[in-house]
Write a structure and sequence with these properties.
The chain is an alpha+beta fold. It has one domain: Double Stranded RNA Binding Domain (2-Layer Sandwich). It is built from 3 helices and 5 strands, in the order H-H-E-E-E-E-E-H. Strands 1, 2, 3, 4 and 5 form a 5-stranded antiparallel sheet that branches. A hairpin with a 2-residue loop joins strand 1 and strand 2. The longest helix has 19 residues. The radius of gyration is 17 Å and the shape is elongated. The N terminus is likely disordered.
Length: 95
Amino acid sequence: MSFLSRLFGFSGNKEASKKGPEPTEHKGFLIFPTPRSVSGQWQIVGVIRLTKDETTLEQEFIRADTLPSEEEAIAFTVRKGKQIIDEMGENLFDN
């Protein structure tokens, strides 16, 4: 990496800069907030993951709700993920 790149804050590690918020654990499930920017707002999007008997199950959820900041969208996504887990539990992964 060149001196100028470091000076102006350009990182050679693009993956590190793309890393999203940390997952939140709830009742053995992991909630990964992945809000999307839509027309200047942030849409509620997340993934719920459960690892059981060496098998990983995932379910994405998307809401029409949008919020003005990414931080608010992350917090709302975690709350919604917890609500889904509380209501559905492992049935979330039934087809």
